[in-house]
Write a structure and sequence with these properties.
single chain, globular, 1 helix, mainly beta, five-stranded antiparallel sheet, 36 strands
Length: 449
């Protein structure tokens, strides 16, 4: 439920990664039958008790290579590419350039795998070279659109850095819906593309059927910018004349600038932010999307790090360098404000509709995971486990601590540690209320949550 201000510049465009060395295909993490590891140090594991479960049970391995009709050096998950009980994966290979020709050969494909059966969902993986016509397609990112139903593969030829970035839209049944270049983002059901002159809008499911176009926004540094805000019922797209309705291109009467930016909440509230990050602070306003009229305004403290929403109680939560503050969405008045050191906040996650889960992304006091009450801001517990990601499922919080372990905390027991699973950098993701671990081209379900 993160609320992220949309900055109008092109710095967020995905950048291609250089070809990587082959990835070992050895299965990981170790199965429950692996030799017992030494007990964790009680001083380094919050909530540690000598009789906690050392490792959870893991399900059978799903071999992702079975979804492809050729061998790839890397087989990996996309970024949060789960649709129902299926997950999108990609195969990637890249050869070293020929010293005489300075030319190599990259190849990539996308497939969908069932997490319940472990079998490929599509009859054939989508070959991204065939889909785009690129001689050496190298996949720099695989994501879902904002509506969570269309896969978007971002490609570039790694041996030709002047080649434009190409985006490929793929349906959940493996149909290539179309391509877009050079820049693209999604918001709700819409695809927004732009160049130096124009911004264009189409539906993600029909990328070649343009709905409207307008002059592109130019940021204060003279570069074409982009931006889109998505609520549950409407999407707004930035143009040179300000934000427009994505459905019909109608101007809405509110504009971006160097000192003003906007954000949308999961409930569809539109917030105008001014002076964020300045020593003197600024303000946050809730506006009427149709015309931009101010509904209320509240001061923003200096050193504001980000804005997030806590949907369970309908609050707008601000995170600055020293405090968490929850604003009433109807009046802008503070519901509660509590001290907490936040050097770099990540999106807040709701657990069981009542708890606020927060983690930081750089070393600082309470770096790791902190859980608060969304009703009054009271801290339930915190873990200084280091950098990581978090999930909240069934009254428990799961956290990857510094990418070397997956730790389970019991929210109903004051954050007591239930178990700790060494993962050594493996990917962890959630689907259908279950947790999965992927590494080396294999997926295993965490059975005992």
């Amino acid at each position: 439920f993160g609320l992220r201000p949309m900055l109008a510049d092109n710095s967020l465009s995905p950048k291609p990664n250089p070809p990587s060395a082959p990835v070992s295909q050895s299965p990981h993490p170790p199965s429950p039958s692996a030799p017992d590891e030494a007990e964790p140090d009680p001083e380094t594991v919050p909530g540690y008790a000598p009789d906690f479960i050392a490792e959870p049970d893991l399900g059978d391995k799903i071999d992702l290579s079975a979804a492809f009709d050729r061998q790839y050096e890397q087989i990996r998950l996309g970024y949060q590419t789960v649709i129902g009980d299926q997950v999108a994966v990609y195969g990637q290979s890249a050869e070293e350039p020929n010293p005489k020709e300075d030319q190599g050969q990259a190849s990539a494909a996308v497939a969908m795998v069932s997490l319940s059966s472990g079998q490929p969902v599509w009859d054939r993986a989508v070959d991204l070279g065939e889909a785009t016509g690129l001689a050496s397609p190298y996949l720099s990112s695989l994501t879902l659109d904002a509506a969570g139903s269309i896969l978007i593969a971002c490609l570039q030829d790694p041996y030709n850095q002047d080649a434009p970035v190409t985006y490929v839209m793929i349906s959940p049944v493996g149909e290539v819906l179309g391509t877009a270049a050079p820049g693209a983002i999604t918001a709700g059901e819409y695809l927004v593309t732009w160049d130096d002159a124009e911004v264009r809008v189409a539906r993600t499911a029909s990328p070649d059927a343009e709905l409207w176009r307008a002059a592109v926004y130019t940021n204060p540094w003279g570069y074409p910018g982009y931006g889109a805000l998505a609520g549950p019922d409407a999407v707004y797209v930035l143009s040179a004349e300000g934000f427009r309705s994505a459905s019909d291109g109608r101007p809405l009467g509110w504009a971006q600038s160097q000192t003003v930016t906007y954000a949308a909440t999961a409930e569809g509230w539109i917030l105008r932010l001014t002076g964020v990050g300045r020593e003197s602070g600024g303000s946050v306003m809730r506006i009427d999307p149709d015309g931009g009229a101010e509904l209320w305004a509240a001061e923003v403290p200096a050193d504001l790090t980000n804005f997030y929403t806590a949907s369970a109680d309908g609050a707008i939560v601000m995170a600055d360098a020293d405090r968490l503050t929850a604003l009433d969405p109807d009046s802008g008045e503070a519901r509660w404000s509590v001290p907490h050191s936040i050097t770099c906040a990540r999106p807040l996650v709701m657990a069981d509709g009542s708890l606020l889960v927060l983690n930081n992304c750089v070393p600082a006091p309470q770096t790791g995971l902190a859980v608060f009450s969304a009703a009054d801001g009271a801290e339930r517990f915190h873990s200084d486990a280091g950098l990581g990601q978090d999930w909240a499922l069934g009254g428990r919080v799961f956290y990857t601590a510094a990418e070397d372990a997956l730790v389970a905390y019991d929210l109903e027991d004051g954050g007591a540690t239930l178990w700790r699973l060494p993962i050594d950098g493996a990917d962890v993701f959630a689907a259908q209320g279950k947790l999965f671990v992927e590494s080396g081209g294999f997926i295993q379900q965490v059975i005992r949550l």
